[in-house]
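stage 2 :: seqdesign
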């Protein structure tokens, strides 16, 4: 049974930091590319950062240099360390897990709210 537990969201002032965590019960965690997406009101969901099964990372230009994605396969966990937060980072952040080879699976967490405001 697929199950996600996301945590770490909340309210933070501009320039502050938050660390999001996602524990994913999805079978063999190490096979999945893990990612964080976000969606602000009125906007489409967008990729924030991803990390492959071989630890290759990718970041959107808007967060490069401020956010860091990491994974701990022993704990089925992916983290997103967010530093130097800006009001435009305000969104619901979603954990995503996808396999890149057959069989293809694509799972989503329930989302966690991040609000950057003074």
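stage 2 :: out
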């Amino acid at each position: 049974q697929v199950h996600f537990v996301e945590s770490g969201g909340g309210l933070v002032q501009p320039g502050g930091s938050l660390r999001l965590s996602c524990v994913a019960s999805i079978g063999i965690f190490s096979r999945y590319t893990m990612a964080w997406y976000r969606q602000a009101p009125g906007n489409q969901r967008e990729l924030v950062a991803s990390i492959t099964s071989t630890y290759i990372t990718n970041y959107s230009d808007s967060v490069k240099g401020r956010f860091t994605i990491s994974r701990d396969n022993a704990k089925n966990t992916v983290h997103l360390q967010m530093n130097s937060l800006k009001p435009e980072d305000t969104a619901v952040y979603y954990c995503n897990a996808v396999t890149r080879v057959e069989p293809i699976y694509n799972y989503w967490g329930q989302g966690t709210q991040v609000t950057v405001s003074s």
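stage 3 :: structure notes
- DSSP finds no helices and eleven strands in the chain.
- The chain has a mean pLDDT of 96.
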